[in-house]
Structure formats: C-alpha cells, structure tokens
Amino acid sequence: MCDTCGCNITDGNRHLIEGDGKLAQTESGREAISVLQGLLSENDHAAAHNREHFDRHGVLTLNLMSSPGSGKTRLLEETIGALGGELRIAVVEGDLETENDAQRIRDKGVEAVQITTGTACHLDAHMVHKALHQLELDEVDILFIENVGNLVCPASFDLGQHRNITLLSVTEGDDKPAKYPVMFRAADLMLVSKSDLLAVLDDFSPDKAERHLRELASSAPVQTLSARSGEGMQAWLDWLRAEHAAAAERIARGETVRPAIQPDGQLLHTHSHDHGHHSHD
Amino acid sequence: MHELAVCQGLMSQVEQIARREQAERITRILLSIGPLSGVEASLLKDAFPIAAAGTVAEQAILDVQEQAVQVKCLSCGAESEATANRLLCAACGDYRTRLISGDEMMLMSVELERRENAQGTPHV
After folding, report:
1. Long-range contacts of A254-261 (CB under 8 A, 24+ apart)
2. What's the CA gap between A244 and A241, in Å, rounded?
3. Chain B: nearest CA to A42, how far in angstroms?
4. Which residues, other chains included, contact A278 with Cβ-Cβ below 8 Å and sequence gap of 6+?
5. Does some domain include residue B123?
6. What gap in Å lies between CA B2 and CA B84, rounded to an integer?
7. ipTM entry
8. Residue B118: inside a domain, yes or no?
9. B13 in reach of chain A (CB within 8 A)
10. How many folded domains does chain B comprise?
C-alpha cells in the first residue's frame, strides 16, 4: 500500500504537508496522523490485481462507458459478428437489473457474464474480479467490460482495464464532453455512435463534439460509426486489431498499460503488486 | 451518486488506521478533492454521517480541502488556472496541456485520540 511514499502528492496539495502547513501541526491532546492515500485505494488495489490477471492470460481488456441507450450492446453484437473468426471475445455486462444484455451477447455465441449491481451506479474492481471467476481467460483475446450506462460514476473506478472507450450517440448533445469532463477526459477512444441518424438529427455535429473533447486536453482519437448501417465500422475494427497486436507485443515484453488518463499520483505508482495471488483456474 | 461508495472506502481506511494506532476515536479527517476527481465535495459531506455511523469516526469532523484546476502547457510551458471542462493553456491557448492539480481524491490525514497507555506505531 502507498500510505508512506507520498505518491499522491500533487502541486495542488503539497503545501498542506510542507513547512507549517495544516497537516504538519498537531493540536494539543490529539495526534494528527499523515496518511496520503487515495480514497479509492482498496478499489485501485483490486484493479491492479485484475490487470495482472489479464496480462498473465494475454487478454486485452476494454472498458465501454456511455449514457444509457448509446448503443454499447449493439456495437458489441456487430463487433462479435465481424471479428468472430479472428479474435476470441468475451463480455462482462454491467446493469442495475436483468440478464438481457448478457443474453444478447450469448446469442452471438460468445461467453458473457452479467453483473447486476442492484442500485449501484457503476462497476468496481471487486465486482469485476468476481465475474472473472466465471470466465476462462486463456480462451479470450479481447474482454469487453460494458459498464453501467452512466456518464458520471463509472469514470472514477479503475477496473483493471487497459483502455477506456467512451461512446457518444448522435441522439445526445454534441456538448456532452463539456458537461461530463471527468468521463470524457478518461477516454482513450471516443466513438460517435448511431451516425446513420445524423441525416435526421442535423443539430449534432461530430466536429463540435471533437472540439469539446480537445478542450479537455485530450488527444484521444475520435471515430464516427453506425453499428446498424456498418458505416465507420472498419476503422473501429482496425483500432481493435491494432490494440490487440500492441497488447501481445507488450505482454511479450512483460509490460502492462493503463488508460491514458489516471490521477497524477497513480502514474507515479510504481509499486509491484506481486503479493498473495490466488488462482483463477 | 457514488459518493457513498467512496465514503465507505474512506471509512475502511480510517478504521484500519484507528486499529493500527490504537485510537479511541477519530476526531477529524482531512481530504483533498479536485473537481476532476469525479467526486463532489458537498455530496461527500452529506454521505459521511451515514458511512461513519457506528464507527470509530462517528464524531469526527470531515474537512474537505477543495483543489483548483491547474494545467501546464506542453507547448509553451506556461502554468495556468483552468476550469474542469476547458483545460486549455491560458497563455497560448493550446489544448495539449498536462493537469498539475485538480484530480485529487485523497485522504491527507486523520486526527485521533489514543486510548490511555496505548502506543502508536512510529510513522514518518
């Protein structure tokens, strides 16, 4: 754990612990204990554990996030259809209730584990860990985690994924990246989905959506596609192939990768997590 | 509204510290929160009494230090204030910036009262 190395100290809070900062002082009769630990350190620890399992089994794990109804499941159905013979895919589905989405994926002949969160508005690393027990990771090249449809909470919880993909459908506003900066800043790839509807929804501009994304200091690629019409699907499938090939090279070198945007402190987090693993076989 | 889940994580960290330090009670908790952490300071404060009920921190004051959003420009090197959804360099306008503050979500310190005769573990 990271309660002593200070790896979460940023330029914004350093003054709190240095010199005569608030935390350097001790009030009489009470003792101030400096902690300097991320609030989600338990989750982050479980996420690091998940990521190690993915790497050990040679799995590329992609976290899909968006509002409800942006077409995540439909995109996965078409992706499975297109890549079925080429890459082995499995899916972890997150929803508050029902097995519906997992069933849609299974109907495509692919393994799917449904996590029902009840009232929880996001997946966390522990839920994903439990779901992994139901999957044969050695049989998987790409694992998609379809997060709960929600543009707020899922962005804060690391699951152990290698990349974040955020969907923005053209039925939403093109200013969503400006309204939900935490979510869109986390994206390694932004997909503008349901592009077949652009003809009738002329108030959505993919260029504007991209401009709002750039204002979040993001250089993530943006792709416009329609799982229904097939438009733009080729570029998406090529991105997946390239990511999968890069993952295989990375794993051969013994390296891992995290989504591009992580809190600064976590980027400095170089501790190894080689303690107490249990088998998933 | 994931602040309750965040608060529950916080409570398990605080309880661990209280056990380690043999504290009788936790009197104050200081957090550092930035707007780009995805956690709302006011909602955290609302969730805290629910998460803290029945724990060693039940009476604790939750202090949240809210951090400003600051970026460093990768193009001209300037450091400037920014807003959560406009992380551009204030000097040259470039979007290629690095966040230097604003995404903190961190437990900075806890203040505690020890049990009589209890010896805490030394810490640096």
Report:
1. A256/A51, A256/A52, A256/A55, A256/A162, A257/A162, A257/A163, A258/A51, A258/A158, A258/A162, A259/A63, A259/A161, A259/A162, A259/A163, A259/A164, A259/A186, A259/A188, A260/A188, A260/A220, A261/A164, A261/A185, A261/A186, A261/A218
2. 5
3. 7
4. none
5. no
6. 19
7. 0.85
8. no
9. yes
10. 1
Q: Binning pLDDT at 50, 70 and 90, where does residue A101 land?
A: very high
pLDDT, residue A29, reads: 65
pLDDT of residue B78: 97
Q: Provide mean pLDDT across the span A88-102.
A: 96
Q: How confident is the model at residue B114 (pLDDT cuts 50, 70, 90)?
A: confident
Would B57 be classed as within a structural domain?
yes
* B30: nearest CA partner in chain A: A23
pLDDT surpassing 90 at residue A11: no
Q: Do B12 and A178 touch (CB under 8 A)?
A: no
Segments forming the whole domain that contains residue B108: 3-113
d(CA B64, CA B10): 13
Residue B8 domain flag: yes
| Token code pair at residue B15 | 């309880």
Q: Does domain A42-252 have CATH number 1.20.1250.20?
A: no
Write out the H or E segment, with its range, that includes residue B2: none
Which residues are A181's β-sheet partners?
none
Asked if the Cβ–Cβ distance from A38 to B107 is below 8 Å, we say yes
Q: Which residue has better confidence, A124 or A24?
A: A124
